[in-house]
From TrEMBL:
Keywords: Copper, Metal-binding, Oxidoreductase, Repeat, Signal
Cofactor(s) required, per the database record: Cu(2+); Cu(+)
Full protein name: Copper-containing nitrite reductase
Pfam families per the UniProt record, alphabetical: Copper-bind (PF00127), Cu-oxidase_3 (PF07732)
GO MF term list: copper ion binding; electron transfer activity; nitrite reductase (NO-forming) activity
Species annotation: Marinobacter nanhaiticus D15-8W
Highest taxon of the lineage: Bacteria
């Protein structure tokens, strides 16, 4: 009989030599020396596909039949979670906050288990760590102790994600005019993910800042007010501005101060703006970026839908997936190793919070920018081809056609257009696809009749694909 790593870990727990021991096992539960130990509480989960997602399903007791059930345990308890493969795909199970991570199992009926001591009170994640499986639905909650309230509610911040539908009014064929832009810099505890918060720095309480829509030749006055309760000096640098620091030289505003400047929009294009107070990369990473569209004379062509999407990075001391309040990490920022990558500021912005929709036959335009501060994006919509790409957001040169993926540098932008011709769920990604596992995804939902002349198959769609 094989020596069981699970048995060894259990012995460690019983002897008290470690209060936090990860367990790895491919053995069945019967082969783990179960008679030699008594876990305080045991759960059995089975992998399956349900409601179009990969899920954990409770296999017995109070959680039987429940999808991704909440697991409640006393503080200090020795917890065993058994996992049985019910769908035949490769899976594992982990509770990262307790260092517990099983071996992979494949084939229906295969099983594994983890054992750990739940010595920290609060709410934590259990999940499958295989690439894409968490995003596909294999994520549940482990609640340790009588918290009095759900930790996900304890760590409840403001909704800071910007709706991608907030694109302003097209300029049409109007002439140049004077306009005013009012920006307030705020420091807001925002909802990064379910049960996770972060102290964002924002323009007008949202990430990205407001989408500003102007016309070439407009004269624009920017009023910047730094909220009284801010702790930092803030400013704004518009890449659309011809002038010192793009405006940053004259807008360094202490808490409670206001600054302003006026500029003429000389060049059409789609431009990033951001805070430019040292250290600039920290201000940008914390959420202080947005875009201004300077439309050419005569405006842009009409389309059915326009969306505003920006990619950003967050550098936190806590690892991606950890619940609770996350804190900024200067070390990770300088090493350019973000824990989170976002579209429109949060993990859920374009997958749960805001619903981007189109219909078969509609023309879609996406204003896409990278706040950064460091990573170049390879912007791609899975299952679509960009009919028109205005490379580097050059709106006066002829667009490129039939493009699959667009490279956009930090502090840069692009404008893409395409017709949605087949119904389904289309996923917005950075094609540096490891970033998908750190939150970088969005959905475009396309409704309408099937188009067999364009796409058809006798195969049933696999719900696990996420499309």
């Amino acid at each position: 009989m094989r020596t069981s790593k699970l048995r060894n870990a259990i012995a460690t727990l019983i002897l008290g030599t470690s209060a936090l021991t990860p367990v790895y096992a491919t053995d069945t539960i019967a082969d783990t020396g179960a008679a030699t130990y008594r876990p305080d509480i045991t759960f059995t989960l089975r992998t399956n596909i349900a409601e179009g997602k990969l899920v954990f399903v409770g296999d017995s007791g109070d959680i039987k039949g429940k999808l991704n059930p909440q697991l409640n345990v006393p503080e200090g308890a020795v917890v065993q979670i058994n996992l049985v493969n019910g769908d035949g795909a490769v899976h594992d199970i982990a509770v990262p906050q307790f260092g517990a991570d099983s071996d992979n199992i494949s084939g229906q009926g295969a099983s594994t288990a983890i054992v750990f001591r739940a010595n920290k009170k609060g709410e934590f994640e259990y999940l499958c760590t295989l690439p894409g499986h968490k995003l596909a639905g294999m994520l549940g909650k482990l609640v340790v102790g009588d918290t009095g309230q759900n930790v996900a509610n304890t760590f409840q911040g403001s909704e800071v994600s910007r709706s991608p539908m907030e694109v302003g009014e097209p300029v049409g064929d109007r002439g140049p005019r004077e306009m005013t832009v009012n920006l307030e810099t705020t420091e807001v505890v925002g909802q990064l993910a379910d049960g996770t918060t972060y102290n964002y720095w924002t323009f007008n309480d949202k990430v990205p800042g407001p989408f500003i829509r102007a016309r070439v030749g407009d004269t624009i006055t920017v009023n910047l007010a730094n909220a009284k309760d801010s702790h930092m000096i803030h400013s704004v640098d518009f890449h659309a501005v011809t002038g010192p620091g793009g405006g940053a030289a004259v807008t360094q505003a202490a808490p409670g101060q206001s600054k302003s400047f006026t500029f003429k929009a000389l060049n059409p294009g789609l431009y990033v703006y951001h805070c430019a107070t040292p250290m600039v990369a920290q201000h940008i990473s914390n959420g202080m970026y947005g875009m201004i569209l300077v439309e050419p004379e005569g405006g842009l062509s009409e389309v059915d839908h326009e969306f505003y999407v920006m990619q950003g990075e967050l550098y936190t001391t806590q690892r991606h997936g950890t619940q609770g309040q996350h804190e900024f990490s200067l070390e990770k920022l300088l090493d350019e190793k973000p824990e989170h990558l976002t579209f429109n500021g949060t993990m859920n912005a374009l997958t749960k919070t805001h619903r981007m929709e189109s219909a078969v036959g509609d023309d879609v335009r996406i204003f896409f920018g990278v706040g950064g501060p460091n990573a170049t994006s390879s912007f791609h919509v899975i299952g679509e081809i960009f009919d028109n790409v205005y490379n580097l957001a050059d709106l006066t040169s002829p667009p490129q056609h039939n493009v699959q993926t667009v490279s956009v540098p930090p502090g840069g932008a692009t404008m893409v257009e395409f017709r949605t011709e087949v119904p389904g769920k289309y996923i917005l990604v950075d094609h540096a696809l490891s970033r998908l596992e750190k939150g970088l995804a969005g959905f475009l939902h396309v409704s309408g009749d099937h188009q067999p002349a364009i796409f058809h198959s006798s195969e049933a769609a696999d719900p696990a694909s996420g499309h």
